[in-house]
């Protein structure tokens, strides 16, 4: 699963905010308030997003309508799962606060801490 | 030739003995930054010993001052057989060994740097997209059921904590964890770990490098613990460490890379901090490390210069 390109991200944000189906023309009209874009550009990006599996497409008369396959929250969660599975990859080499260990080892740590705090309390 | 053999023996002795002498990380943990320096010095000294031996084998000097300066010419001469056949074989072996080592190091360095840069950039982007700023801190919070915290190091440095960690830790504990990760960032610890990663990748069969890598990884954690302990309670950090360790052990990836021993060393050290080394002791230790690193070079230079000095009129 890859992240979005810059324009793809803008368009996905629009579609998530819209909650429902949008045609190319509708997306373009909203985007034109902020930036200069050609109709064909928006159409291509929407079609690419559909091919990549991010958007559902249906035809509405002459034009096509699009809506996101997953909600923004689902997308965020999926991205996050990927980030966290990456963080276990030694090639990525992050500095983790604590590494992996067995439950026995973790229990040993807890015992050492409890013993220390018990001593402090006395 | 004798000097070269002595240098090779020196390097082999160092690579065999150092991992045994330094087996217990608790010893170096007393002064973690010095400990990192110890490992890098040992590795540098052993490497320089081998490099100097190779240089001596290639440039077998005739006993005169003029020829000492012409390493390259001597090298060519050696390969053309200007010296005895045994010397020639030794020179060839030295050149071959040095070339193999250089190629392996280059490939390992390239792979490590490229993979980390790619992975870290991807991490930073993912976290940037899926995370949100934890109010009042410089950390990013991401939603996940497993309590974890880590630093994405480098140019796009980001401290990441999961929502489960925020829930599981008290305010002071969370602040101590974030300070720990900030300590990694300001200490540029990823570079220290990456350096060892390159070496162990280039020479995966070296036991000394494996141990050096493992201990440097632990020592930078201890450095970060110390950095956090400046402003935060050690006990808070220890509690956070134990809580996060329990979370890590309960997650399915549990048995991938066991570092339970490291965590135990850290907890013990947080609960009963060792007396720091006295300033004088630390300075002496640092000076000794300097001697360790230059020793093989000095040996090689002396071995080269000594016979020539003996030939000087009025000396020897």
TrEMBL record, chain A:
One Pfam family in the UniProt entry: Penicillinase_R
GO annotation (BP), single: negative regulation of DNA-templated transcription
GO MF assignments: DNA binding
Gene3D superfamilies to which the protein is assigned, alphabetical: 6.10.140.850, Winged helix-like DNA-binding domain superfamily/Winged helix DNA-binding domain (1.10.10.10)
Domain of life: Bacteria
Similarity section: Belongs to the BlaI transcriptional regulatory family.
Protein name: Putative transcriptional regulator
Lineage of source species: Bacteria, Bacillati, Actinomycetota, Actinomycetes, Micromonosporales
TrEMBL record, chain B:
Residue ranges occupied by any Peptidase M48 domain in the UniProt entry: 126-196
Entry cofactors: Zn(2+)
InterPro entries, sorted: Beta-lactam_resp_regulator, Peptidase_M48
Gene3D superfamilies: Metalloproteases ('zincins'), catalytic domain
Note on cofactor: Binds 1 zinc ion per subunit.
GO terms classed as biological process: proteolysis
Keyword vocabulary terms for this entry: Hydrolase, Membrane, Metal-binding, Metalloprotease, Protease, Transmembrane, Transmembrane helix, Zinc
GO molecular function: metal ion binding; metalloendopeptidase activity
Transmembrane regions: 6-22, 34-58, 85-110, 282-306
Record family assignment: Belongs to the peptidase M48 family.
Protein known as: Zn-dependent protease with chaperone function
Organism (species): Phytomonospora endophytica
């Amino acid at each position: 699963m890859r992240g979005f390109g810059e324009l793809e991200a803008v368009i996905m944000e629009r579609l998530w905010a819209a909650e429902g189906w949008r045609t190319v023309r509708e997306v373009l009209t909203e985007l034109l308030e902020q930036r200069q874009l050609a109709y064909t550009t928006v159409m291509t990006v929407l079609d690419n997003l559909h091919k990549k599996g991010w958007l559902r497409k249906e035809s509405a008369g002459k034009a096509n309508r699009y809506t996101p396959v997953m909600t923004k929250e689902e997308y965020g969660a999926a991205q996050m799962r990927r980030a966290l599975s990456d963080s276990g990859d030694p090639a990525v080499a992050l500095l983790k606060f604590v590494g992996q260990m067995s439950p026995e080892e973790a229990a040993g740590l807890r015992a050492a801490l409890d013993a220390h705090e018990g001593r402090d309390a006395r | 030739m004798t000097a070269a053999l002595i240098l090779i023996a020196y390097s082999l002795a160092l690579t065999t003995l150092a991992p045994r002498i330094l087996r217990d990380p608790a010893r170096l943990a007393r002064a973690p930054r010095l400990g990192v320096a110890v490992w890098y010095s040992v590795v540098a000294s052993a490497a320089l010993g081998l490099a100097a031996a190779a240089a001596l084998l290639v440039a077998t000097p005739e006993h005169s001052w003029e020829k000492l300066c012409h390493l390259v010419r001597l090298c060519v001469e050696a390969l053309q057989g200007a010296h005895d056949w045994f010397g020639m074989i030794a020179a060839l072996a030295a050149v071959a060994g040095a070339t193999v080592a250089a190629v392996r190091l280059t490939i390992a360095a390239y792979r490590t740097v490229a993979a980390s840069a790619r992975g870290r950039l991807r991490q930073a982007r993912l976290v940037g997209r899926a995370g949100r700023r934890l109010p009042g801190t410089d950390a990013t919070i991401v939603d996940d059921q497993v309590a974890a915290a880590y630093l994405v190091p480098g140019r796009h440095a980001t401290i990441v904590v999961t929502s489960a960690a925020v829930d599981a830790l008290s305010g002071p504990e969370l602040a101590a964890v974030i300070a720990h990760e900030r300590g990694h960032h300001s200490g540029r610890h990823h570079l220290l770990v990456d350096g060892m990663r390159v070496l162990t990748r280039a020479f995966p069969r070296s036991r000394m490098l494996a141990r050096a890598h493992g201990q440097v990884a632990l020592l930078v954690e201890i450095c970060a613990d110390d950095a956090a302990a400046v402003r935060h309670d050690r006990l808070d950090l220890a509690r956070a460490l134990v809580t996060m360790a329990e979370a890590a052990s309960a997650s399915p990836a549990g048995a991938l890379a066991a570092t339970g021993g490291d965590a135990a060393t850290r907890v013990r050290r947080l609960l009963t901090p060792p007396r720091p080394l006295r300033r004088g002791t630390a300075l002496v230790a640092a000076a000794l490390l300097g001697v360790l690193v230059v020793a093989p070079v000095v040996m090689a230079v002396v071995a080269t210069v000594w016979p020539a000095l003996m030939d000087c009129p009025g000396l020897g």
